[in-house]
Amino acid sequence: MARWTPRPDGGRPEGRECVHIETAEPEATPQSVVCRQCVVLGHDWVALRVCLTCGYVGCCDSSRHGHATAHFESSGHPLMRSAEHGDEWAWCFVDELYLQPCDVSRASTG
Question: Where is the UBP-type domain positioned along the sequence (predicted)?
């Protein structure tokens, strides 16, 4: 069973599906706790994202370089999640859809 499900308030029409959810099983372990590319450049980042396919850790689009999106564009890996403490969401780049953990979905529906 997939760990992620489309978030009802994901900014997309109800019923929108993500066919990539199953590709995140099992979810890859993060490769680092920093954006290594930013470290090499000597730059800070706003927030970190983790690729669910391979565990690559990159900075978010609000950061100077947006290495997480660049990773998607070069690798084709469709899913990433927030690496920030307390964040429980993921994003499908292909379907442009926010995802939430399956247990959050079940709790909100009853």
Answer: 16-110
Q: For residues 63 and 15, what is the distance between their CA atoms, to the nearest angstrom?
A: 31
Can you give the pLDDT at residue 10? 66
Q: Which residue has the tokens 């599906």?
A: 17
pTM of the model: 0.85
The alpha carbon torsion through 24, 29, 35, 36 (nearest 10 deg) reads -120
pLDDT of residue 37 exceeding 90, the answer is yes
- Which residues are registered as beta bridge partners of 49? 58, 82
List the domain boundaries for the chain. Answer: 23-109
- 23-109 CATH, one of 3.30.40.10, 3.30.2350.10, 3.30.2140.20, 3.30.450.20: 3.30.40.10
